[in-house]
């Protein structure tokens, strides 16, 4: 097992013995990304029991949490069992090693015995590899997968990859369909920092794409009175973790994600889950929205309480009149957006998730 720093000029290779000998002064010569990767690797290899992590802040204020080594090991072995990962396979680490997704890729590599290749996070992590390189195991965010599919040299590398897990944000229906273009096995993940990475997987391409998430081994789950997911297992230190994720179970280990309870819009007494409405709009396959990111948000309304609005990331002028009329013809009455807003760039969290709260604040200031 080793860690290769691929995007540095000298492409240094770090073995466990070498990392354990590195000093803080030596680490200072590296940039933030590589230093974080080496610092975590050193702590993991010397057997530290506690690790201090930072939540992403995608649904609230980022906060520090502490997780135990035993929790991380449970997650590692659950993923390895589900994806059939084993020693001496190759892995690409292209997510920020200061956050849980990148940290867990490193931890999996050292624990399972993977040959790891680290590159600094970017929208095109495969662009500097030749097609035949491939990797047995890769973790990406949706934007990285999208760019890898849209750029032919990158796609050739992707086609030579084995298992690719996608996290950090939900995959759009459009991206899931595009994933059918690659030979790599692509999985959507479901999880959070508090559960030490993902706790469920869903294959999105291949001959039988899945619509339901399947829990990893060792995870117990149920829903609370709100219909929100509750989780317990070694990954949570055998304590119940309560989420704001509305789900529907079809079997004890399989569920469908419906949306976030804290994003629910109450319009005229009807509760609307933005994520579900976004999927409805994606299925309409409107050319005007093709290739563009958009979300459903809300604004205060004297009559309805909250009015549903569509926010699109684009620099191209859209016909709001046409879109709103089209939605009236195709969507249920209370699901129809009442306004369309355009933002040139969506604000994002440090881990690359769309920051819905900031977008709502932005359109609120425009509306006023």
Q: Which tags fit this structure?
A:
368 residues; alpha/beta; Rossmann fold; 2 domains; 13-stranded mixed sheet; 3-stranded mixed sheet; 30% helix
Task: Explain what this protein looks like in three dimensions.
This protein has 368 residues and is of the alpha/beta class. The chain folds into 2 domains: 2-261, ANL, N-terminal domain (Rossmann fold, 3-Layer(aba) Sandwich), CATH 3.40.50.12780; 264-367, GMP Synthetase, Chain A, domain 3 (2-Layer Sandwich). The chain contains 11 helices and 20 strands. The chain has a 13-stranded mixed beta sheet with strand order 2-1-6-5-7-8-9-10-11-15-14-13-12. Strand 9 and strand 10 (197-203) form a beta hairpin. Helix 4 (69-83) crosses helix 5 (100-112). The longest helix is centred in the N-terminal third of the chain and has 15 residues, at 69-83. The chain is globular and about 65 Å long.
Task: Indicate the topology.
Elements lengths: L1 E4 L7 E3 H6 L2 H4 L4 H14 L4 E5 L9 E5 H15 L6 E4 L6 H13 L2 E4 L18 E4 L1 H9 L1 H8 L3 E4 L6 H6 L6 E8 L4 E7 L9 E3 L4 E4 L4 E5 L8 E11 L2 E7 L4 E3 L2 E3 L1 H11 L9 E8 L3 E9 L6 H11 L8 E5 L12 H12 L1
Parallel strand pairs: 1-6, 5-6, 5-7, 7-8, 8-9, 19-20
Antiparallel strand pairs: 1-2, 3-4, 9-10, 10-11, 11-15, 12-13, 13-14, 14-15, 16-17, 18-19
Question: In short, what is this structure?
Answer:
This protein has helices at residues 16-21, 24-27, 32-45, 69-83, 100-112, 142-150, 152-159, 173-178, 274-284, 320-330, 356-367; strands at 2-5, 13-15, 50-54, 64-68, 90-93, 115-118, 137-140, 163-166, 185-192, 197-203, 213-215, 220-223, 228-232, 241-251, 254-260, 265-267, 270-272, 294-301, 305-313, 339-343.
